[in-house]
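This week, think about what follows.
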Amino acid sequence: MAAYLFQADPDRFDLDRYLLRSLSNDTPVYWLANQHRESMASGDRVFILRSAGNRSAAVGGVIAVGRIGAAPEKLNDRIWDPWGPSGGNDWRVLLDLQELRLTTDSGMVHVPQIVKDPGLAALARTLSANVRLSHEQSEALMSLWMKAAVQESQGFRL
């Protein structure tokens, strides 16, 4: 299975609010999938990275792990779209998030931890909205995620 790193800029999009709202209302989480959509499939691993905010106080790092729930599709206005009206031109992918860690205390994986890992350092320099990870990168990121869980209290189990 493939793995992806999806990134959001907290200065442009309130990712924390979107994820918490979706989870508390039991509504689906959708993500823009304009890059790599041809290779995305149900069951692929997903990491969500919140970049550090310049205007917001957000701390950058991986804050969620899950799986792709369904292949990307154009959903038009059938869903609530946190990025604004798409006019049916943007692709969305359904996510099945398994764990959410929004803070340091809950065990998020900070960007400096990612940069220190030799297999992931190059990744930090090439981030775009959607990045397809190699198997080695996916395993290294999952290892950091699991280590952070042991070091800190658990986040939200979904």
User: Anything to note?
Assistant: Residues 135-151 form the longest helix (17 residues). The chain has a mean pLDDT of 82.
